[in-house]
Design brief:
The complex is a heterodimer. Chain A has two helices and no strands. By secondary structure, chain A is mostly helical. The radius of gyration of chain A is 18 Å and the shape is elongated. The two termini of chain A are 15 Å apart. The model of chain A has no long low-confidence stretch (mean pLDDT 86). By secondary structure, chain B is mainly alpha-helical. In chain B, helix 8 packs parallel to helix 17. The N terminus and C terminus of chain B are likely disordered. The chains are: A mainly alpha, B mainly alpha. Chains A and B meet through helix 1 and helix 2 of A and helix 6, helix 11, helix 13 and helix 21 of B.
């Protein structure tokens, strides 16, 4: 992998993952605000905790993936 | 500067003398037993943190030490420090209070406080670390014109910092009031003086270490408190829910969603503030310069996310448990049927109820240390805005005298301390989580939008950034002033002119649209030069090569 490939892949991943995270959270807030009866309170709480755990895992996986991506770079980083 | 520190210590001594006298009067009047154990633990924590500041001060010699702690923290240490910055009065006191008041809807704040970190990681961590020196403004100014960008961001940073500081000062005031039984204004003045000493002496190194130690203690303390909460319900969540509906004044609705957000614009505004606000907070972005490279910056965010996510779940359950534990105990309510000390004191009441004076003392002390450390971080950030962004970049044109720069920063700290005290007194009755979200709204509007555009959009020019950011900042300030917390609660008008809770939806849109339109129509030579520098900036931001392409 050359430097331009790395920049392109990382930029695409960053933008798609950010957009997906925004979409999920705005959806979650919209459900609570606009259709609060769609599920019970405890289920909202449970969904919220799932979202937090999803964030933790996503950030951790992205960190590992980035590290591997830089390791694949031809000639390393000056 | 030594004279200023001696003066500060004398002021604290005088304040404590007044505190003791006032407390004696209060005790006689109320015939209440002073919480001596809690107060002793509290004072021990303050002395410990001052000791850390003193040690750090001896190691702070250069501007790099002062702003970036020498840039030598590990990813784990910096992750704890970021988590420490984030686990502020707003998170611990404000969120538990909101859950106590609104029940299930508090989950929005719990998730919201954790949701921005993936965005910080994906969009900013690497690039900000590789492009900046001491502040994130260096990043935006990398290919854009330095002077107008530094001036714009100085204003936006100060607005954000002061709004965020209100939340911390109000939390500190209410805490001291509860612990010492003292008038609110004593506490606010005390916090102002202590934070001035912390920052002017120790800089980023002291602030970082206090954050790290505090984060560890707060995580352990929170875990122990939530363990006691669960224990009081026989480790049954069902029993906790059932009891909450039985004793809460809201009845069954406390476990139904829809109590907090009443209109779509406020709901979307809140979501946007949570998503993008933390990624624009000056004192959080500064933390990327305390690590040696971008790999450590990524690692910092991973650890911070883990600690913050865990803490949000813990605090949510403390608030939820408080509904059942406190609502049925009239001893925690005043004559007006409000919880004593306001909703911000919910977690502290729970600690006293379940762990007695010892746990109350520890939780109060850690909370106070939390507030002091966060306020110190904010003050440091504000001080660096004056010394680095205004003096170094604008007045000295990038060739500052390092000694003058650090001196300006230290004197700016005194000014910021005074303003913080004034704001703390003005906004006494506000929920601290709500005030913190207002600062997130401004951070999302100006800082995040322009950072993201400068890093990912070739077309952004200085003209677009300044006009878009300026319009967004002005609109955000106007909407905040016209909203209920300022227009009604501070100015005393009957109805707010801006009827929604958060300005983000409108102010972010204004920034984005104006920045894009002005940049696209900018046909100047400077604009063309800035666009041409984008590829080189992107390569350096991802690969961390030398920083020699600055436009001016």
């Amino acid at each position: 992998m050359n430097k331009m490939d790395l920049i392109k892949v990382k930029r695409r991943a960053a933008l798609y993952l950010s957009a997906f995270t925004c979409f999920i959270f705005i959806g979650f807030v919209s459900l609570i605000a606009f259709i609060p009866t769609i599920m019970s309170g405890p289920n909202f709480i449970f969904s919220g905790f799932i979202l937090i755990i999803y964030n933790i895992i996503l950030v951790s996986l992205y960190g590992r993936w980035s590290k591997r991506l830089y390791a694949q770079l031809d000639g390393g980083i000056e | 500067m030594k004279k200023i520190h001696i003066l500060s210590l004398l002021l604290i001594a005088a304040l404590f003398k007044n505190i003791t006298a006032a407390h004696a009067v209060e005790t006689v009047q109320n015939s209440a037993e002073p919480k001596l154990l809690a107060i002793s633990i509290f004072i021990a924590f303050v002395i410990l943190s001052l000791g850390i500041t003193y040690i750090a001060a001896r190691r702070t010699k250069s501007a790099d030490d002062f702003y970036a702690g020498g840039g030598n923290l590990t990813g784990f240490q910096n992750g704890l420090a970021i988590a420490g910055d984030w686990m502020s009065a707003a998170t611990f006191l404000g969120m538990s209070g909101l859950v106590f008041l609104y029940g299930v809807d508090g989950i929005i704040f719990a998730v919201g406080a954790a949701i921005s970190w993936p965005i910080v990681m994906f969009i900013l961590a690497d690039r900000v670390r590789n492009l900046g020196q001491y502040t994130y403004v260096d990043v935006v100014a990398y290919r854009l014109s330095s002077t107008p960008i530094h001036i714009l961001f100085s204003f936006s940073s100060l607005v954000i910092i002061f709004l965020y500081m209100i939340a911390q000062m109000v939390g500190a005031g209410a805490l001291i009031q509860l612990l010492f039984g003292l008038p609110y204004h004593y506490a606010v003045i005390l916090v102002g003086i202590l934070m001035t000493i912390y920052v002017s002496l120790g800089g980023m190194l002291a602030t970082s270490w206090i954050q790290i130690i505090k984060a560890v203690i707060l995580l352990i303390g929170g875990t122990f408190l939530v363990f006691l909460v669960f224990k009081s319900f026989g480790f049954s969540i069902d029993m906790m829910f059932q009891r909450a509906t039985e004793v809460s004044p809201r009845g069954d609705s406390i476990l139904n969603a829809g109590n907090l957000l009443t209109d779509p614009i406020s709901a979307i505004g809140l979501a946007l503030a949570f998503l993008f606000g933390p990624a624009g907070l000056p004192h959080i972005l500064m933390r990327f310069f305390t690590v040696p490279n971008s790999a450590a910056a990524r690692s910092s965010v991973s650890y911070a996310m883990l600690f913050i996510g865990y803490f949000q779940i813990v605090v949510f359950f403390i608030g939820l448990g408080a509904i059942s534990l406190l609502s049925s105990d009239s001893g925690y309510f005043d004559a007006a049927s409000g919880i004593i000390g306001g909703s911000n004191m919910t977690a502290l009441h729970v600690s006293e109820l379940l762990g007695g004076e010892l746990l109350f003392g520890i939780v109060s002390a850690v909370t106070f240390a939390t507030i002091l450390a966060v306020v110190a971080g904010l003050t440091l950030s504000a001080a660096s805005t004056f010394s680095h962004d205004l003096y170094s970049a604008v007045i000295a044109k990038g060739k500052p005298n390092e000694k003058v720069e650090v001196s300006i920063s230290r004197f700016a700290t005194l000014g910021v301390g005074l303003v913080a005290i004034g704001l703390g007194l003005l906004f006494e009755k506000q929920n601290v989580a709500y005030m913190a979200v207002l600062s997130l709204a401004v951070a999302a509007t100006v800082n995040f939008v322009l950072l993201a555009l400068s890093l990912y959009w070739r077309g952004l020019t200085t003209r677009g950034a300044v006009l878009g950011g300026g319009a967004g900042l002005i609109s955000a300030i106007i909407l905040v002033v016209l909203s209920k917390p300022v227009w009604v609660d501070v100015f005393g008008y009957a109805e707010p002119i801006y009827p929604y809770d958060y300005p983000t939806l409108f102010s972010m849109t204004i920034t984005i649209i104006i920045a894009i339109i002005v940049s696209i129509t900018d046909k100047s030579d400077g604009g063309a030069k800035e666009r041409a520098l984008f590829d080189a900036q992107e390569a350096i931001s991802e690969l961390g090569a030398d920083k020699n392409i600055r436009s001016n």
